[in-house]
Design brief:
Elements lengths: L3 E3 L6 E3 L3 E6 L7 H5 L3 E7 L8 H11 L8 E6 L5 H20 L12 H21 L7
Antiparallel strand pairs: 1-2, 3-4, 4-5
Length: 144
């Protein structure tokens, strides 16, 4: 049985066999549990070679991943918030799903705008006023 990570309302699923999990020892609270059990999870997802993601989502996901994406295009998510391995595993999957949901949103294109003539004139007037104020601070020249 192949379990799927469902990205809500976006029309595609990621097979769980595309995700690789590595269980490591976590630091922080947990007493002796921390020293004995590997409860932290590292989720690795090969973004660049994923057949599940459309091209535009793939590019935005790599950009959103930032330092978490390696040069080869592998996204790594560390989850060590909880004391149990299963809760950390689910937390990592949820964080990946949220990241992919954010990558699915297309950014609005920026419309170039220019300042109005009145705004340009106000800016220049403020600069003239400031320059005049600074000129008053200067010592009088010998010509005067």
């Amino acid at each position: 049985m192949v379990r799927r990570v469902v990205i809500r309302g976006k029309g595609f699923c990621i097979d769980e066999d595309e995700l690789r999990f590595k269980f490591i020892r976590a630091s922080g609270p947990g007493g002796q549990n921390v020293n004995k059990l590997a409860s932290a999870v590292q989720l690795k997802f090969d973004v660049r070679h994923s057949p599940s993601l459309p091209g535009d989502v793939l590019v935005r996901l790599i950009a959103l991943g930032g330092k978490r994406v390696s040069a080869r295009g592998v996204l790594t998510i560390d989850a060590r918030r909880f004391r149990s391995q299963e809760r950390n595993r689910q937390d990592a999957i949820d964080r990946l799903a949220r990241l992919i949901e954010r990558a699915c949103v297309k950014p609005k294109p920026r419309k170039k705008t220019r300042p109005s003539a009145a705004a340009q004139e106000r800016r220049l007037q403020a600069k003239r006023k400031r320059a005049a104020h600074k000129r008053l601070r200067q010592l009088p020249s010998l010509d005067e």
